[in-house]
Design brief:
Length: 423
Amino acid sequence: MSDEISSRFKAWFHNGGGRIHQHIDFKPVDSGLAVVSLKPLPKDLNIITCPLSLVVTPELSRDALSSLGLNCAGLTEKQLICTYLSMHWVLDETSHGSSKASKENSSSGIPLHFRHGPYLSMMPDQSRLRTSLHFNPQELDALKGSNLYAATLDRLSDMQADWTACHAAVMAADASLAGNFTFDSYLMVSTYLASRAFPSSILSPNPTLVASPSSYPVLLPGIDTLNHARGQPVTWLVSYPDQIATASVRDPSVSLVLHASTQTGEELFNNYGPKPNSEFILAYGFTLPGNPDDTIVLRIGGQGGTGKKWEVGRFAQGFDAVWEGVYTIFSSQANDEDVEPFANDLDSANMLIDMLGTLLERLPDGNNFATGIRPDVQTMISHYIEGQQSILKAALQYCEKKREDALKVANELGFDLSFDDDD
């Protein structure tokens, strides 16, 4: 990112009513961008304020797209935002001069409705994106045998379907625009949205990051430039003019307050909330080593994803529910009068041990990689596989203890039962 791009964004942000603390700045890093302090900063400091008028919302996106003649009926909130952002590039590439929209007094030919160009220019280019949606074929193959491999293919398929619907809407409005509205551009802005979006609930007078069925994704320019640090103490403040006695706040705005002090040259961080490495790779493009929030989804029974599924964390956190679910299956199939008191526990343990062992064997090797896999991607995959292995091994220990307890009861009742390590 050049100083010119950064200066252009700052000017655009300031002219739109935004505020960036004078003692922070943007610094180019391998992944794109970092926010750093220029001087020691105290705790509880408001570092960035974004007016709601600059927030990228589905409503703003719909209005802009409608100005080009698009029929937006049937497009989801995500499709609206992704198409709106993509159109900045499309309009610039085609130098489109639509009579349906007023234009800036510049040579770009981009309609005034599409005003987030300086914000979009701050985003990392495609070569810097590291979500699994941007893995090369060798990198994607390195995930085979894991849940993340299937999740990536599903996400790509969903995204292709979303783009197809949006492309059809653009084509119907203006075929000259559709030619430059590629899937690659849609994939890029979808990645920006997935990695940077906040739920619309953050814009309420009582902001929260907990999404609800009625919330939708929004982008907060400036605020979304900070990278993630787990456990970073932050607060989002939403201000409305009628709530404030002074006249310093002219428009509704959302601010990011950092509660930790920062030394000169240190990076400032946001907190995206607890997330597993699978989600970080799929949507953000980074991982945390030994991530304590790692999880794995276990599915039992059913065809085509119709069975029950549970999310299990490290140290077998949440595995009680899996055990109870499997135990219920065996107990419901048994005739209580003919079943020994240890039988259901033993059957449940044996079934889960077989299943967990198979899942462990299927996981790819997180330490040995084929050629063609970038070093930073190798690191991410290693972090992810370590977490999956750790969770499955802890669940196996849980089941082995259950089996030991069941065998102990059987032996006490006079049954001579034993299992070899390979059983």
